[in-house]
Amino acid sequence: xxxxxxxxxxxxxxxxxxxxxxxxRNVRKTPSEDxxxxxVLAATIAAEGLLQNLVVVPSPSKENERAGYEVVAGGRRxxxxxxxxxxxxxxxxxxxxxxxxxxxxxxxxxxxxNQMQAFMHPADQFEAFKALVDNGKSVGxxxxxxxxxxxxxxxxxxxxRLSPKLLALFREDKMTLEQLMSLTLSDDHExxxxxxxxxxxxxxxxxxxxxxxxxxxxxxxxxxxxCVGIAAYEAAGGFVRRDLFAEEEAGYLTDRSLLEQxxxxxxxxxxxxxRAEGWAWVEVRMDYDYSEFSRYARIRPTRxxxxxxxxxxLKALHEQQDTLQAQIDALxxxxxxxxxxxxxxxxxxxQLAEKIDAMDxxxxxxxxxxxxxxxxxxxxGRDGGVQIQRGLVRPDxxxxxxxxxxxxRAALPPKKPVHSEKLMRRLSAQRTAALQAELSKRPEIAxxxxxxxxxxxxFFRNSRYYHHSAVQVQSESTESLLxxxxxxxxxxxxxxTLNTQRTAWEKQLPEDGAALFGWLLKQSxxxxxxxxxxxxxxxxxxxxxxxxxxxxxxxxxxLSLDMGKWWQPTQDSYFMHVSKARIAEIVSEAVSKAEADKxxxxxxxxAAEAAQRLVSQTGWLPEGLRGKEPASTxxxxxSGT
Length: 641
Hints:
Elements: E1 12-16, E2 20-22, H1 35-48, E3 54-58, E4 69-73, H2 75-86, E5 95-100, H3 103-116, H4 122-134, H5 139-146, H6 150-160, H7 164-171, H8 177-182, H9 189-198, H10 206-214, E6 218-219, H11 223-228, H12 230-235, E7 240-243, E8 250-253, H13 256-275, E9 281-284, H14 290-293, E10 297-298, E11 302-303, H15 308-329, H16 340-362, E12 364-365, H17 368-373, E13 375-380, E14 386-393, H18 395-404, H19 406-410, H20 421-439, H21 443-458, H22 479-485, H23 493-508, H24 516-521, H25 525-539, H26 552-559, H27 580-590, H28 593-599, H29 604-615
Parallel strand pairs: 2-4, 3-5, 9-13
Antiparallel strand pairs: 1-5, 3-4, 6-8, 7-8, 10-14, 11-12, 13-14
Helix pairs in contact: 1-2, 3-4, 4-6, 5-6, 15-16, 20-22, 20-23, 20-25, 20-26, 21-25, 27-28, 27-29
C-alpha cells in the first residue's frame, strides 16, 4: 500500500550524456521554449557549469534498445547539453549529475521543477496531478506537496478527466480555461463534445455552455429547491449535480419532476388550511407571476391591533431571525452552502419567516363579502418559504363592479404615473435589448416582424399605420439609442449577448461592402435567416416614456419574452430611482408587509440595498417590464386590393 510521506533524498549519480534521453513521462508536453532560449541556456552552462542536476528514471528494458535513463525533469538542460556536445564545447560522454527516482516520484519532481522554470501549460499540470493520483497518491498528499488546497487539486483533477479532444483544443488556445471549467458539469465525454460543437460560436461563453448542460435542472439555491430542501429531495431518490468551479460550490437538482411533486405536496397542505378560511377560490402555484396577477384587483383587509402578548412574541421572533441571519453571514466564504449545517440554518430561517407571516396574516380582518368575491394564491417565495396572497379579485369578477363605480372613478383626478419618464426610458431600453437578444435567435419570428413592416410600407401607404411596427427598416441600428436611454445597459446580459453575436458575424462578413451581395448569394438559407434575425433584432426600437402597450409588445408576446431572465431589480438599476414609499410597496407585494415596515425606518440608500437583497429571485418586475395586452389589433384592409 502506497504511503503519502516524503522519502529520503536519493544521492546524485553521474551518468554519461549518451545514456540519457527525454522521457515521455516528462509532464511538460506543451513546449514553451524556442531554439534561442536553449542557446542562451547552453551559453550559461558553458560559462558557469551545470548548476542543477537532472531528474531521471531507468529506461524500461526493450529489445534492440540499449539500457539508459529517461529525463523526466530538466529537459531544457538536457537539450542545452546536447547542443554544447554537438558543437564540441563538451565531451560526447560528458558525465551529467542526475537524481534517479521511481516513476511516481519523478512525476512530482518534474511537475514542481517545471512550475518553477519556464511557463508550464495548465493542461500539463492537470494531467500530472491525475498521474500522481492514478499511481496511488491521495488528493491530500498532492495538495501538501505543491502547497495547494485539496479543493483546488480536486478542480484540476476534474479538468484532467475532460474529453481529450477538448483538452487538445485548450492546448492549442482554441478555447479558454473558463469554457473548459464550465464543461466539467458533465462527466460524459460525448456530452461534453456535443455541447461544445453543437453550440454556435456566439453561444460558447462559459455561462451559455453551463446553461446548456443544466437547462432542465434546478439550482440548489433556487426557491423551489430551498422550499423542498436538499435532504428531503435526496431522501426521495433525487440526484444533485455539483459544480466544483462556482464561487460557492453550486448544485443542480436534476429531477425537476420529483422536486415539483414534493413542493406541490407541501403547498397543498397549506392550501387546505387557507380554503377553510372561506375564500371563493384558492390556487396553488410554483411561483407568483406578477405579470399575470397585475391584472387582478386586490382588496386590502382591515387590521386588528396587536395585543401586548402578540407584540412580545413578534419581537422575539424578529430577534431570533436577526440572530440566525448573523450566524449565516458570519460563516467563512469557503464553507459549502450545501453543507448540512448551513442548510439547517437556512431552514430555520425559512421556518421563522413563515411564523412571522402567519402572525401577520392572523391580524388581517376580512369582510364576509370580500371572502365571497376574492381568492388566494399559495406559492413559493424568494427564500423558499410558502407565501400566501389573499384578497385577489379575478378580472372577470371585477368587471361588474367596475361599471357600477364608473362615475365615481371618472370624478377622481388622473392617476400619477408609477415611474418617471427617465426611468421608463431606462426600463424600456433594457427590455428592448432583451427582446433583441431573444429575437436574434428566432429567425421565424424575425421573418414575420420584417415582413409585417414591409407590408405596412407597401400596402398600407397611410403613415398612420406605421406605428403598428417596432421594426425600423430605414433606420440604423438602435444600439446608441438604447445606450443613451440606459447608461448601465452595457453591463447587461442582453447587451453582451448581442455584442458576442455581432463580433461573430463581423468575422464572417466580407470587409468590402461592395462584395456583400455576392457573398450573400453564396450562403445557405439557414445562414441568411440567422443573419436576417440578427439585423432585424438590431433595428427594433421599443424605448418609450409611457407605461402603455407598445408595438414591440407584439414581438415580445410571439417570443414569450420573460424579462426575469434578462433583468433583475437592483439598487442601481431600479430602487434608487423611486421613492422610499414605492420601495416599501414593492417589498410588501413581493415579500411581506413585515419586511416592508422595516425598510421605512431606514435611510433611502439602506432601504434600496435591503430591497435588492429581499426582492432578488422573487421574479418581481416593475410595470414597465411586465407583459401587456395589445392596445388594439390590426383590422384594416390593405388599400388597392
